[in-house]
Amino acid sequence: SYVRSLGPDQVLASLLRGSLNSVSELESEGKSGSFFYFSSDSRFLLKTISRAEMTFVRAILPDYLRHLEAHPATLCPRFTSAHQLRLPDGTKVDFVVMCNVFATERR
Fold first, then answer.
1. What residues are paired with 73 via a beta bridge?
2. CA 70, 36, 46: angle at the middle one, nearest 5?
3. Would you put residue 24 in left (φ > 0), alpha (ψ -120 to 50) or beta?
4. Which residues on adjacent β-strands are paired with residue 93?
5. In 3-state terms, what secondary structure has residue 72?
6. Whole-angstrom Cα distance, residue 12 to residue 81?
7. With contact defined as beta carbons under 8 Å apart, do 64 and 79 qualify?
8. What is the 3-state secondary structure (H, E, C) of 1-68?
9. Do the beta carbons of residue 40 and residue 18 sit within 8 Å?
10. 98 three-state secondary structure
């Protein structure tokens, strides 16, 4: 199943491989002002989201998973996880990790 195909070990290994210098950052030009970070192997994308977006992601999760299971070739983004990080100053940052649809095998 989709959930079992992307275990936490695989996602974390991809995100943490290399050093922090190997993580690419891209600031959104869109209205949201989100930040995007790519794993060192470009397989995963981390995107900051608003609290309202996090609430929405959590609300649709059961239906989202059912859709992915029923339609493996869907063009919907492939979210792997959702997190909240509390910074030392108390600020909370919500973010999602998703598969990068543009990732290709490097040769």
1. none
2. 45
3. beta
4. 85
5. coil
6. 11
7. yes
8. CHHHHCCHHHHHHHHHCCCHHHCEEEECCCCCCCEEEECCCCCEEEEEECHHHHHHHHHHHHHHHHHH
9. yes
10. strand
To which residue do tokens 């950052």 refer? Answer: 25
CB atoms within 10 A of CB 28: 12
Query: What is the reported pTM?
Result: 0.69
Q: Which residue type does 52 have?
A: A
User: For 22-76, how does the pLDDT look when each residue is reduced to its tens digit (9 = 90+)?
Assistant: 445 455 556 677 888 888 788 888 889 999 999 999 999 999 999 999 999 998 9
Measured between alpha carbons, how far is 70 from 78 in angstroms, rounded to an integer? 14
